[in-house]
Each structure stands twice: as C-alpha cells, then as structure tokens.
Design brief:
Strand content of chain A: 25-35%
Order of helices and strands of chain A: HEEEEEEEE
Largest sheet of chain B: 5 strands, mixed
Distance between the termini of chain B: 55 Å
Radius of gyration of chain B: 20 Å
Helix content of chain B: under 10%
Helix content of chain A: 10-25%
Structural class of chain B: mainly beta
Shape of chain A: elongated
Distance between the termini of chain A: 71 Å
Oligomer: heterodimer
Chain lengths: 149, 140
C-alpha cells in the first residue's frame, strides 16, 4: 500500500540533514545552540575584533519590558509586548501583529567577558555587546622527568 | 469582512512611490523591501493603524497622503559596524513599504502619526458629518 510512502520519500532528506549537521559540527562555530533553531525573537549574530554583537528585532517593546541576564555561559532574554490597552477584539478590523511574553536563552562562548556584557535598545532593535576576553597567552607546561620504576 | 468599506483597503501589489521622500537620498546597495505587519482598529472617532517598523526612526520614515492613498516607507539604516562578520542570521535587514487606500470618510487634514520603539501609530479621524444647512428664503 502506498499510503505511507511519503515517509520513505522524505527519508533521504533526513539523511541529508544529518550529513549537513555533521559537516557543521566540524566547523568552529562559537554559538552551537543557535544552529537550526527558530525561536522568538529571531536574532542575528556578528563577530568583530573585540566583541560579538547580537541583534534582535523587538518592535513595540520598551526597555522596561526587557530583562537580560547573563550567567554561567548562558544569556537569557525575557520580554513582554503588551497588547494595546482598552481595545476590544471586535474593534479590530485587521490583526497581523503579535504580542505576549517570550523568553529565549542563548549559550555564549567561554571567551565572552560576562561582567562586561552591555545592551542598548533603539527604535525597536535590541543590540547586545558581548566583549571578548583579551587573548590569553599559551602557557608552557614544564614536563618533569618521572622516576623510572 | 473587507476593510475597504470602512475606510481603508490594502492593495496587494507594492511598488516604490513615484516621488520618494527625503529618506531616499542615499540609495546604497540593493535592499530587501518588506511589507510590515499591521493592525487596524476602530475607535469612536475613526480608525487607528498600527505598523511594526523595527529599526525605523522618525527621520527615516516617510509617510504621505496623496490622492486618497496613504503610503508609508520606512528606511532602516544599518547600524552594524563595518567589518563585522555575520556568523548567524535569523532575520533579514531591509526597508518597509506599504500603502493603503483611504475612503472619503477619513479626514485627510487631521491624520496624525506617532512612532515609538519601532511601532508606527497613525490616527485616521472620520470626517465630520456635514450638517444640514438651512437656507434662508427671502421674499421681495
């Protein structure tokens, strides 16, 4: 019976996804948790010489309705977009915008100096600066000759 | 329910306005043009149109009423420092364009707009009902 054939035809696709995943795992990507995720809010991530820059579109949110915390290598963004006050459902003639509360956590690389993370919110765009720690010099480890048994 | 009968209709096809506003002075590289999500709700005095325009400021927004057509064009200037390397992308940066047909019922002269935190709110008051005017009849 060909009833469930669609499952079979998608199988190669899943294989491909797995292969792409394996390929990406081989790349030095500093924010592994972001891979293939679709969460709110969508974020973009940039790397500069001295920092990572995370941006998110959050129109209609005010800085009072945003809460950012960073702890133990995890950056957590929490926010609320209030519904327009005092407008009944039946007054809406068109409703395409969304509102409500949301939360998103993002793993940040070890090299980020958590105590120096800063954020700004302008015209509905959130920018989070994640400064990199200065390059740590490789430390040479002395190898001591052990006693032969 | 069609918005058309109550004051606003939303054309499907979008095109850049023939006379771009001052925000269009530096065209730069090709940009993506988005149709912003909107809400329209009725109040006792008219309609309120709300549009999400993240990244648009008062200076980069061009709002025009011409021939019963309300056009909003919001430019989003890039704030990413030059030389930044994009590591991960979940949204596209681009400008916003959308236009609406206003009915005769809207008082064009009293349209007002506010932009806060990337949200535009346009108030479209109903035109005042024309009052019956009594005509004095004189006799010679």
């Amino acid at each position: 019976m060909p009833v469930f054939r669609w499952r079979d035809s998608w199988e190669p696709f899943r294989d491909l996804e797995r292969q792409v995943d394996r390929l990406l795992e081989g790349l030095p990507f500093p924010f592994p948790v972001l891979r293939f995720e679709r969460q709110f809010p969508p974020v973009n991530l940039y790397e500069l010489d001295d920092e990572f820059l995370l941006t998110a579109e959050l129109p209609g949110t005010s800085s009072e309705n945003l809460e950012l915390t960073v702890s133990g290598g995890v950056l957590t963004l929490k926010g609320k977009r209030p519904a327009p006050a005092g407008i009944a459902d039946e007054q809406f003639r068109r409703h395409e915008r969304v509102w409500g509360s949301w939360e998103r956590s993002i793993n940040i690389p070890d090299q980020v100096q958590e105590e120096r993370v800063s954020a700004e919110f302008t015209d509905g765009i959130l920018k989070i600066h994640l400064p990199k720690a200065p390059d740590t010099k490789p430390r040479k480890i002395q190898v001591v000759q052990g006693n032969n048994p | 329910m069609s918005a058309e009968h109550n004051g606003l209709s939303i054309p499907v096809n979008q095109s850049l306005p023939a006379q771009p506003g001052p925000a269009n002075e530096s065209p730069g590289p090709e940009r993506v043009l988005f149709t912003p999500p909107i809400d329209i709700y009725e109040t006792g005095d008219g309609l309120v149109l709300v549009a999400d325009l993240p990244g648009v400021s008062v200076q980069s927004l061009d709002l025009q009423v011409q021939n019963n057509k309300l056009t909003l064009l919001g430019r989003v200037p890039s704030t990413i420092p030059p030389g930044a390397k994009l590591l991960h992308k979940e949204y596209e940066e681009g400008d916003f364009l959308r236009s609406f047909i206003l009915s005769e019922n809207v008082d064009h002269e009293r349209v007002t707009a506010r932009l806060n935190n990337g949200v535009l709110e346009v108030v479209l008051p109903h035109a005042a009902k024309t009052q019956p005017r009594r005509i004095q009849v004189d006799s010679d």
